[in-house]
Amino acid sequence: MGPEKMQQRQTFQEIMEILPLPPGKEGNQNDQPRFMSCRSAWLPGCDLAFLQGNGNVLGHGKPLPRTHTAVYGGHVYSQSALAACLVRKDHESRDRDSKSQALHTIHGTFTLAGHADRPFIYTVSPLSTTKSFSTTLVTAAQPSAPSTNPDGDNFPIDDSTLPMGQSCFQALVSFKTAESTQRHEQEPSVQSRFKNILESRIPMDWPPAPPLDISGILDAIPMVSRMVGTFPALEMRKVDMTTYNKDKPLYERRELILYRLLAPLPKDASPSEHALVHVYECDRNGLLMLANHLGYGDRLGGVASLTWTYVIHGNIDESRIEFGEDEWWVQEACWPRAGSGRGIIMSKIWSPEGDHVATEYQDGVSRRWSKDGKL
């Protein structure tokens, strides 16, 4: 897919745009700060819609998976935290005695699949605040009917008055003041441990992160592995780790994803908003890659995120992401455990300078295609 298609992809600030909603009646849940997403969340598999109905089948007689109806989980996860950040920023602007606190952790739970044709409505409830630490609860829900905009995007504010469905996502978000570093310890960087592999090609010579990283699709239709697709915000490249992973047990295998911004963030973007770029990225294809490593990428029954924790290790400025040709960050993904129809993905986020900036730990469904659905 050529550069002209890449230019049509949404930037991070476009896909994350949210509007504050008018307050509700006092004493009602709606008197809490609320926000509405403006743009349709990215839909995994939307770039493969052309494959549907053309007779393509995977091994074992299983047809190609239908286009997903559940949107990208990284959208509601990141946007929930963004809503919490905006409320925290407002609190600090009104309370002159409060110290600046930045995003620290996000602990999220997915309870229902999100729909692309309607907005997310976020309700933000500050829980506790001290001089150096605070916590906020964010709940996300969607209207029970599609947007009043027939295009299913660029949602009008009137969508916020539609009847609401049940909460589909909940996040506990923490904020922390910055501290001076008394001691800095980390394992050798991903760039040093995989130096020979990473330096064997320039980043753009690695293939794009696939629209859907399902081995059955990639093997049956090789062109999919070369598609850039419409994933927003980031240019992402997947390092070929086939030789490294060969004959290793699951817990020793690694996948490396290189990523950089498609466009600069606004000059007034907060440090926490910079950090949310990495949060948005690290949900990409993780449970699908797990299924591939378990050996049933051609017999995939289903994947879904259940719980997800993201921890920023240092001060927030370490998460700042610049726009530039050589500003490549690295997601180092591994899978310590799989069983009972679920699996764990753990990812370390590495800066271009080799600093371990953050870690994600996500538990999700990853099932083989079978009658009983057991892993």
Descriptive notes:
Residues 302-364 form the Acyl-CoA thioesterase-like C-terminal domain. Pfam families: 4HBT_3, 4HBT_3C. InterPro entries: ACOT8-like_C, Acyl-CoA_hotdog, Acyl_CoA_thio, HotDog_dom_sf, TesB_ACOT8-like_N. One of its GO terms (molecular function) is fatty acyl-CoA hydrolase activity. One of its GO terms (biological process) is acyl-CoA metabolic process. This protein is of the alpha+beta class. It has a single domain, classed as Acyl-CoA thioesterase, double hotdog domain (Porin, Beta Barrel), CATH 2.40.160.210. It has helices spanning 3-6, 12-15, 73-94, 190-193, 195-198, 215-220, 242-245, 271-281, 286-294; strands at 18-20, 34-37, 102-110, 121-129, 133-143, 164-176, 234-238, 255-261, 300-312, 329-334, 338-339, 342-350, 356-368. Strands 1, 2, 3, 4, 5, 6, 7, 8, 9, 10, 11, 12 and 13 form a 13-stranded antiparallel beta sheet that branches. Helix 3 runs antiparallel to helix 8. The two termini are 35 Å apart. The model is unreliable at 1-7 (pLDDT under 50).
Care to give the gist of this entry?
The chain contains 9 helices and 13 strands. By secondary structure, the chain is of the alpha+beta class.
Tags for this entry?
about 375 residues; alpha+beta; Porin; 13-stranded antiparallel β-sheet; 13 strands; disordered N terminus
